[in-house]
Amino acid sequence: MKSEIQKFFKGDIDDTPETLKLYSHDASLFEIMPKLVVYPKNAEDVKELVRWVKENKKNDPALSITARSAGTDMSGGAINDSIIMDFTRYMNALVSLSPDRKEAIVEPGMFYRDFETETLKHGLILPCYTASKSINAMGGMVGNNSSGEKSLKYGSTRNFIKELKVVFADGFEHVLRPLNKKELYAKVAQTDFEGSIYREMLEMINKNQDSIQKARPKVSKNSAGYDLWDIYDSKNEVFDLCKLIVGSQGTLGIVTEITLSLVPVDHASKLMVVFMNDLTHLGSVVDELLPLRPESLESYDDKTFKLAMKFFKDLVKAKGAWGLFTFALSFLPEFFMILSGGVPKLILLVEFSGESGTQVALACDEARQKIAHFGFKTHITKNAREANKYWQMRRDSFALLRKHVEGRRTAPFIDDIIVPPHVLPEFLPKLNAILDPYKNIIYTIAGHAGNGNFHIIPLMDFNDPRTVPQILEISEKVYNLVVKYDGSITAEHNDGIIRTPYLPLMYGPHIYSLFEEVKKIFDPQVILNPKKKVGDTIKDIEKYIIKPDAPHITHNS
Ligand SMILES: Cc1cc2nc3c(=O)[nH]c(=O)nc-3n(C[C@H](O)[C@H](O)[C@H](O)COP(=O)(O)OP(=O)(O)OC[C@H]3O[C@@H](n4cnc5c(N)ncnc54)[C@H](O)[C@@H]3O)c2cc1C
């Protein structure tokens, strides 16, 4: 295979055992050994390789291409058993940045951290950045429809995509953008592969309009399944295939260039911390705070809090002597809280941003007054340094836990559930009731309370024979609960290997059959990232789950 591809491919090709081993992992709990890793120099390479795979698929049905950016996917979306195409080595440029139009064009392999350095020079930001923003890349954000702490106000990656260049399964690069009626019908009239995609997608959407709209998830963020509900905006008569490609995990096309819109960075922000002793009123607190338009409404539980205090030493590392002293001093109230046994059940971080310090201080005061009747202790942070302490607990505690627990590894499988925020008071105790009997599993709950999105990433011992059956048992129970409360099995981390088998549970057989139809329309030969979004089973989860001695996260970032 390598010698054949070398004849036309300008980028690098690697099949050394070390490279294959590295690319057999992403940040998920799976391991699949690929046959080859390729690093395209440009879109020409991508097109040529897709054409070669298409032509050779008949003789070698196992051939496929899985696009990969930084490989931090937690669902197993960036691994597969044939060719892995890594964009971070060459296709990582910022093509252009237009500060006046607040727009950037970027290649998929550019790391978000590098992209942000450039946008910040112009006072602009892509606000759907993730908690993994120092290690992930732009192509993966598009592939997964990623989002993060500012998504309460700004939404997910899909909201920021203006245009995509995508290599379809025909081996040609196509420009996708919102089309008006006339432009759409011109596409539909084309006799090529692109024409057939537009024709068949339009037909499918028209035929199933009611059931598609009924299946639209009732949550503010969703990365489960194919996003069928936003492709056709019937009110404005706009048809936009970008909506579908974003979040499709490279199963419908390979993204070669991304045009994004950006927002100005706010000049001031202020954080209010709410210490909640019981969760009964969580939904009502969130409901009352949301109309005040906080930029972030994040949370972490008592286990996270205790963990941060336990491993405090690591949390304050690398701050220098004076920095360490002042940072440590700022934690005194928390230490007293622990000593007096008064650890709150949940800590809410409510951040407001705006043009001036006065504006955000007023917003915090208003928020404090609005929720005063619940009787929870609140604290408005005095400065950015103090706010940072709370943010650090939210962002770093999980990494701390991973580092300190011997013989266990992270097991993201119910890592990204989301329910409408108003059901949280009922939902969270039921979730805890499912998890609590599993005494061998260590877990914390943190997340985006404003969206009702929680990240539960347990630590599990993969030498323990109970682990795999427990993963499947808990998934089934938790996803049934999520569906009962009109939630989604994944808000931002996407389906991959770990959640694809549960898509019929979430959407029902009809919508899942439409997902299968979409895959057939775009990728009839199944050459693009197979077994993600459709075709993956519980047996695949069992088959590809990491072996006990496998190394920890080995993404290529
Ligand atoms: C510690 C940690 C924290 C995280 N926090 C968050 C978070 O806050 N929010 C969040 O949304 N996610 C989070 N994630 C998950 C992950 O980091 C994000 O989904 C990220 O955006 C993926 O980017 P990547 O470059 O690593 O993509 P990859 O892992 O390389 O790929 C992700 C998916 O996109 C597809 N893809 C990649 N490139 C292309 C392309 N060129 N064309 C088509 N498809 C492509 C891949 O096939 C794969 O299915 C976290 C992960 C970790 C390890």
Short key terms for the protein model shown above:
alpha+beta, globular, 5-stranded antiparallel β-sheet, binds flavin-adenine dinucleotide, 22 strands, 557 residues
Give an account of the 3D structure.
The structure is a single chain. The protein contains 22 helices and 22 strands. Helix content is 38%, strand content 17%. The longest helix has 21 residues, at 384-404. Helix 8 (193-207) packs antiparallel against helix 21 (503-522) and helix 18 runs antiparallel to helix 19. The strands form 6 sheets. The chain has a 7-stranded antiparallel sheet with strand order 17-14-16-15-20-21-19, sandwiched between helices. It is an alpha+beta fold. The two termini are 27 Å apart. Bound molecules: flavin-adenine dinucleotide.
Short description:
The protein is an alpha+beta fold and 557 residues long.
Helical amount: 25-40%
Strand order of the largest sheet: 17-14-16-15-20-21-19
Distance between the termini: 27 Å
Please mark out the parts with pLDDT under 50 across 5 or more consecutive residues, or reply none: none
The fraction of residues in strands falls at: 15-25%
Largest sheet: 7 strands, antiparallel
What small ligands are held by the chains? flavin-adenine dinucleotide
Structural class: alpha+beta
**Overall average pLDDT:** 91
What would the principal axes of the Cα set say about the shape? globular
Number of strands: 22
Rg over CA atoms, rounded to whole Å, is: 23 Å
State the helix count.
22
